[in-house]
Write a structure and sequence with these properties.
2 domains; six-stranded mixed sheet; alpha/beta; 16% strand; Purple Acid Phosphatase, chain A, domain 2; 14 strands; globular
């Protein structure tokens, strides 16, 4: 039995690694098929007039076009040349088509299920004419449903690409901290994450973010990774703006997977040269807050792939082992997968980012928001608590790939430490 479980686990691990290792190629392929499917839905008459080979094989040239445009965009980014508005518009419509195609697939499943059910009843009752009328009604309804769904999705994505991606939200929380809530009562910790300095960030935007953080009068500012987006990031131009962040006990920064893609040593050196921040790469510092200790541990980014982080980091275990027991620990880790280990090590508060809150999300039941980040981690966004330890996953200030945010606004998090007695009374 254990052998069979081991084989299944190994096969699953290999599949996951292969999938995420080729994710972007698969994504471009899926988008090409989706673009063609949406064209078929919108213009069925015109599509039927095309030669059969083109009807079947058209996704291939669309895929090659998309790959060519993506490669061209990457070359322009490397020399810090802005992508043209027409190309961005094409990317936006292509990305939107992926979600439209998924919706049309669901409509198709509904149509097939309904017609099969009606056909079975008609065959049993011998009423072919009634079945034909019912099929026509079902087809008309599904066509209306498909068109309405595409219109709604189009409007939602238009909002996400325009108004939605400019929204900035300040989330305020009051939390008790294990081993330190009473002594650190009132401490104001501000977290920002996933700034993504690059083609998708303007200087005026970063200046606005810095001003909003400063207005919160922070005691501590924590930046949880992905400061740079790619090797084309203009760190010399943007980091002096970020360097205007100030906090009574300092600004602490860690690196994310995009910083490693840019060059971890390069980003860390630029931060140390152009800002007064403390950069933690598998390092920890001990602060005295009004005479009381707070230990800040910063983990360097590591993971299996761009999506998943390491669930266990030996450095965290070693760092906690040398810290005085019974004192509060603040952990900075770019990816939230570390939370189970943080709980086991007695960490009071873990701050993470990476997920962007999915960037695309839809309201759900009980006030929950379902989002794309749920496909890569159980800790997708917001606050989590287990056994007295807290994790907060920030939705980030920047965007990557697509300039879109839908029900996942850019975020600054303010966490005010609350005394245990006050927390119990709340």
């Amino acid at each position: 039995m254990s052998t069979a479980i081991g084989i299944v686990t190994t096969a699953r691990t290999r599949f996951v690694r292969a999938f995420f290792g080729n994710f972007f190629t698969l994504l471009v392929m899926a988008i090409a098929v989706s673009q063609w499917a949406v064209l078929w839905w919108l213009f069925p008459g015109a599509m039927h007039t095309l030669p059969g080979v083109l009807q079947v094989g058209a996704p291939l040239p669309i895929y090659l076009l998309n790959r060519t445009l993506a490669a061209r965009t990457q070359r322009r980014w490397r020399v810090r040349t802005a992508t043209s508005g027409w190309v961005r518009l094409y990317y936006a419509t292509a990305f939107t088509s992926l979600f439209c195609a998924v919706f049309l697939l669901l409509v198709g499943i509904l149509w097939l299920s309904a017609t099969t059910f009606v056909g079975a009843i008609a065959a049993h009752a011998g009423t072919a004419h009634a079945a034909f009328a019912a099929d026509s009604t079902i087809g008309t309804f599904c066509r209306w449903l498909g068109n309405t769904g595409l219109g709604v999705i189009g409007l939602m994505f238009a909002y996400g690409y325009s108004i939605g991606q400019h929204r900035l939200k300040v989330v305020s929380l009051r939390l008790p901290l294990r081993n330190g809530a009473d002594t650190l009562n009132g401490l104001r910790i501000v977290q920002i994450s996933d700034i993504h300095i690059g083609q998708n960030l303007k200087r005026a935007e970063l200046e606005r973010f810095v001003a909003r953080v400063s207005a919160l009068d922070p005691d501590l500012v924590c930046i949880t990774g992905d400061i740079a987006d790619s090797p084309a990031a203009d760190l010399e131009g943007f980091l002096p703006i970020l360097a205007q962040l100030r906090a009574r006990y300092g600004v602490f920064a860690i690196l994310g997977n995009h910083d490693h893609r840019t060059g971890a040593d390069h980003v860390a050196a630029a931060l140390r040269r152009l800002t007064p921040f403390t950069v933690l790469r598998d390092e920890h510092v001990s602060l005295a807050i009004n005479g009381h200790p707070l230990h800040v541990v910063g983990l360097d980014d590591r993971g299996y792939n761009w999506a998943h982080g390491m669930p266990h980091v030996p450095y965290l275990e070693a760092a906690v082992a040398v810290l005085p027991p019974g004192e509060p620990i603040l952990l900075l880790c770019h990816r939230p997968d570390i939370f189970p280990q943080a709980i086991a090590e007695g960490v009071a508060l873990t701050l993470a980012g990476h997920t962007h809150g999915g960037q695309l999300a839809v309201p759900w039941f009980n006030g929950r928001v379902r989002n794309l980040a749920e496909f890569i981690t159980a800790f997708d966004r917001g606050l989590f608590e287990r056994d007295g330890s807290y994790l907060y996953v920030n939705c980030g200030l920047g965007v990557t790939a697509q300039r879109i945010r839908l029900n996942a606004p850019r975020e600054i998090t303010l966490i005010e430490v609350q005394a245990t007695a006050l927390a119990a009374a709340a």
